[in-house]
Amino acid sequence: MDIDERIQCLSQSRSPYVLEALNSPVKWWGWCAKAFEKAINEDKPLLIDIGAGWCHWCHVMDETTYKDPEVVQLINDYFIPIKVDRDERPDIDRRYQEAALLIAGQGGWPLTVFATPKGEVIYAGTYFPPRDGMGLPGMVRVLRAVLDAYRSRRDQIGELIREISNAITSSYVSTVTDNLDIGVVDDVVVKIVDMYDNEHGGFGMAPKFPQVTYHALLLYRGFYTGSALINIVRETLIRMGRGGIYDQLGGGFHRYSVDSGWLIPHFEKLLIDNAELLMNYSEAYAITMDDELREIGVGIINYVNDTLANPDGGYYASQDADVDFKDEGGYYKWSVDELRGLLSNDEFNIIYWYFGIFKFRGNEKAVLHRALSIEEVANKLGISINMARSLLNSAISKMINARRQRKSPRIDTTIYAGWSSAMAIAYTMASDYMSINGVIEHSLKIIDFIMNNMYRSDGLRRAFRCNTLSLPGLLEDYSYTLLAALMAYSHTGDRKYLEFAIKLGNDIVDKFRAPDGGFYDTDMPDEPMTLRIKPIADTPNWSPNSLALIALMNLYRVTGIDKFSKEVNNGIRALYSLAMRYGPAASSYFIALDWYLRDPPKVVIVGDANDDFIRLLRMALRTFRPGKLVIPIISDSVDDLLMDNSIRAMVNEYRRKGSPLAYVCAYSACTTPIVNEETLRNVLTDFMRDRYA
Fold first, then answer.
1. Nearest residue to 356 (alpha-carbon basis) of 376, 341, 328
2. Which of 22, 49, 450, 585 is the most interior residue, by most CB within 10 Å?
3. Given phi > 0 = left and psi -120 to 50 = alpha, else beta, which region is 66?
4. pTM above 0.90, yes or no
5. Domains of the chain
6. Residues 274-289: pLDDT tens digits?
């Protein structure tokens, strides 16, 4: 009976990472009530393994630690082991990561948690080898120590549980603040600049993650305050794009760099990271018009379309770091001998300098990075730039074809609503600011897929895999999908997208609203985890509460529905003091605060969908301004959805004049009607600009 229940419990997950546990000698359970009931009935502690299909050290631990006979016997005899995918259940991961930070001073994946049968943390760490080694305690020793503590020191465990619970709860305590200070946004900017790495770009020391919300905040403030902040972002994005963290052949970014110079990556590629980075590259290009930024952005798009695209819509979640856990990142590495055998002498000489082969040690396999520009390579070899480019293109073509013959890292074909919606937003930005053809169609296909396949009568679902839906949507799913639906409406004026956005907005308020302001990350507690939290820290991806605040803010700016404005008002004030404690780690909140207090411009375009209307709409979409919102109103198609009296007045003016009109509005003021697209571009760029500095 236990075997059937255990397999049924595991099979509730759609995660390949969790389902692989069916083949493990460890008798893994999934995250389900039956697993906790069994632990309570048998009075056994839990071993909770939180990882992901893309995680190198998770695979190492599965193939070594969890196949060691002594480890397997100890776990199966004395513990109830539970397997969790952090991509599928970020809510579970978030809570246990905080406990791990309190206990061990670090988190990450794999996250190895020992807990009471009620899920209360006893001890936590990350990677444990089977036996002591690498400066780490072995799993055998850890298992025995936890078991001894659980059996003989219950009082001490109880005290530890209370301390951890109190610490986590207090970390989310925030008092409502009525006096909001816009100056704190620039204070956070100063703190971010203080962390800037002048030598390599980026922020802080190794390991180095792309800080997408830092990039966004600096770009938005730099647009108004001067080029220094913009140059920091531009230099960072270029250095990243030249490094090994960026796949020089296939495009797309790996998750992070283990060194400060962006040269040696952790090799997993996640959809959400590439989506949020594409947003950065698109907006940075819109401001700087630096072609290298556009080239890197195109590389992200090519990677996602070639590798992560679901033919029916939506995008797959991630690509694994490895093919073989014993050869970390082997798919992406090259040796000198391999390259010499593949390329002509002239081609090899080009890539020797261009891709930094001259830095390789002996015949080691290493990661490519752009060490010199093609102009520098041509000068070094004494050939023309055109000849150098031709040889480089020929070499890259051969290397790509050779790499395609290798077995590629596995794709997690799960489609997460929030992550795919983030890519839809990124694609629309790339279309608008980089003028990349065809990607807007991909964006609309994503939103249509989610509307038709992932939203049901009881709300949005988080995951879709093998034609099966699983899990209620989380706050991040609803928020990113709402933002994507509004983006789809901005580009089409299609009523169905605005209706969907309003439906999602109502869901966010009804399902996630906290009584004291802000939003919980889940719509209801998941036993035994009853702790309700309002995540505001960036990870470094945008935080769920910041996304929700911006999404509802924009929905109110389009519709004028007071319900959404009220929740934004409450949320901004409820989370302000908490964000002040986090500082730059809550940069996405400070973007929301900035837009809440400074009221970014919105462009309203009213008229029939004729050529003049489309020209005005395209110009509004392609003109960059931080936080800009474009509202196309085609005839009377959405009259009943709009409660904003100023927009209704614009519609009436159009009906009186009979030709398309555009208005730029900010700070409760709007321009007179605009009929020329060049005039619209100039006005949108400069309207009330001094109010934002």
1. 376
2. 450
3. alpha
4. yes
5. 2-171 (3.40.30.10), 183-322+412-598 (1.50.10.10), 330-408 (1.10.10), 602-692 (3.40.30)
6. 999 999 999 999 999 9
